[in-house]
Known about the structure:
Two copies of one chain form a homodimer.
Chain A: H1 10-17, H2 21-29, H3 36-49, H4 55-62, E1 67-71, H5 76-79, H6 83-98, E2 102-106, H7 113-119, E3 124-128, H8 135-142, E4 147-150, E5 159-163, H9 165-178, E6 184-189, H10 203-217, E7 227-230, H11 234-246, E8 253-256, H12 259-271, E9 281-286, E10 299-302, H13 305-320, E11 330-333, E12 336-338, H14 348-352
Parallel strand pairs in A: 1-2, 1-3, 3-4, 4-5, 5-11, 6-7, 6-8, 8-9, 9-10
Antiparallel strand pairs in A: 10-12
The structure holds a DNA duplex (30 and 30 nucleotides).
Amino acid sequence: MELRTIRPRIADVAREAGVSKTAVSFAFNSPDRLAPETAVRIREIAEQLGYTPHPVARMLTQRHTLTIGVLTPQALSVIFSNPFFGAFSEGVAGAAEESGYALHFISPLHGSLARAMSRATVDGVVAIGLSDDHPEVEQIRRAGVPIVLVDSTALPEHGSVEIDDVGGARAAAEHLIGLGHRNVLVIGVEPPAPSVAIDPDGVTSRRLRGYREAFAAVGLEIPDESVVVGPASIDGGIAALNRAWEDGMRPTAVLAMSDAMAIGAMRALRDMRLTIPGDVSVVGFDDIDLAPHVDPPLTTVHQPIRRMGEEAVSLLLSVVQRRDPSGPEHRRLETRLIVRGSTGPAPLEAQREGAGVND
Amino acid sequence: MELRTIRPRIADVAREAGVSKTAVSFAFNSPDRLAPETAVRIREIAEQLGYTPHPVARMLTQRHTLTIGVLTPQALSVIFSNPFFGAFSEGVAGAAEESGYALHFISPLHGSLARAMSRATVDGVVAIGLSDDHPEVEQIRRAGVPIVLVDSTALPEHGSVEIDDVGGARAAAEHLIGLGHRNVLVIGVEPPAPSVAIDPDGVTSRRLRGYREAFAAVGLEIPDESVVVGPASIDGGIAALNRAWEDGMRPTAVLAMSDAMAIGAMRALRDMRLTIPGDVSVVGFDDIDLAPHVDPPLTTVHQPIRRMGEEAVSLLLSVVQRRDPSGPEHRRLETRLIVRGSTGPAPLEAQREGAGVND
DNA sequence: TATCTTCGCTAAACCGGTTTGCTAAACCGG
DNA sequence: CCGGTTTAGCAAACCGGTTTAGCGAAGATA
Lengths: 359, 359
């Protein structure tokens, strides 16, 4: 049973080298303040002792951590099951790394985002999909940590990046309407906290509004019963669709608010021996990398996922690094519908009747 | 232009409440050492001042960070583009969160993993796909940070979790051989450092060994020219396959070491108007969630990705939390071939000739 | 030779908390 | 009323570094 080796401290190096702690610190951080040979000697001794400056101690005096936090409203284990998040992280990571920042993921620790946040040692935070009335936002602000909100209703005092959810959703719905669909099922993403109803300003509500606007424009409506929600994953999509079917819904098309859910829905439909888009059309939202490669290729609303991550970090760093004379910025990115193979004309009999009859 | 509010310190609260710093600290950490009403009063004042204990300072005295690091050999922006990593992170995150740990991703900062690592404030590290001769492993050990290696050659002194790469690869190759394929293209994952050749102990080499064993068993071999590598992403797969084609290769099957690359390869083949598996069979490696949903459903080697992440964290925490009387543990997980729709019999003419002729 | 810089280095303060050791007052049984 | 135990709270040390102010010696300038 070996003794856990003790980490050498700066004082150990100083003693060994016969210099002051200051000299050792200089040897690492500003070698030019030391005679070249002294600096080298100190570093050699440090090396040989296996000394590395303790990162936490260093953070404490330097007042920054070179880390940015990514705040998620749900457990990371569920967040990561959504490919959207992978792509978003890609953008965040790319921009962060370029500026020399590492990433720290913060998720509700045993239910409390606040507690998780109070432990996190970060210079700033990008929060994704956090409804802005979340008390944590206020708490973070009070702790003096800069934050930028992504996919949340913008708050004037924080930076934000949003996309045109309503427009994208409307385009998706218009596409279906043009194909003759009248009876659709909407699959929404579950609100972070399954507590209350649907956050009136969350992405689910915004996209739903877009869908409804399109239907309203042609004098139709999407009843609340036609909206079902679940976690944004393949399994979530499967479950949501099956639930709808069990409830007796027989739509000719489904509007999913996430590609993963759309893919799940297609799987579930297939398992019922329905064809896509022959019997049922499916349109997703996100346009993840794999969307063109699934069977059939997924018609979906493209959003610039990576760029959202990049922009968020860029906004954040501009305030973290105090290059920001002009107050928080708000950026809005466009969405666009990409028609692939998962949508087609509504079955004829369905176009005549109110509800589709299948098989 | 508003003044950046200064974060209140413990001393501010103490002064305001007319008590010592100690009392304030007690109010937060061991309230039972204070008269109940004093504790309440202090907390109220703290609340009202917007005081939260500075996490870095707290870490310094408590000697732990409640954070575990995830070390990746490549930039996070490329790592995250591989769905495998998302699933792995899912496992890591799930296990970490359960024990109250947050996640810190560490990637080569401007090329140097060592520098990135020396900045990271973590209690332990799980390193994925890091070849063990990486100097950083030694550096981390010297810094006294516990580490467990995933998908790397196991080092006796560190915990590790590996999978049966050789067996999985062999099974994939045997499957193709059984279908009559003789001329295959291998698409490997790029070694982290594009420096030297292929790390003789990395996952690419191990899987290649498996492929070759299977071929050797029937008296065939896979020449080095039939092995091409690239980044483990869809685009990497597209590029790798196109490169092989330009070099004149005309295999009847491709063995990809990652599902993302396999999917890319299928795309590239499709774009050449080849059918899968009619003209060319494709088998992947990983069995990501989307593998069954692509077109055609991907035949691939399943590995328990999430579990790898979970086991890694569990191993790591067992030493971080000093519950480990028995030295580092090594865990090995099984792989298995999952046959779906992307593989089929080799075209007849190809079975007779040496190289396939297409279209 | 006297004064001013520069060079090389150090002692001490500081970052913002936690923890140890101790004391004075209150409490307690006899 | 006395010695012993709690209780409530404080001062100081500590975690492990960085940074400021300053000092003596050497070299430059006058």
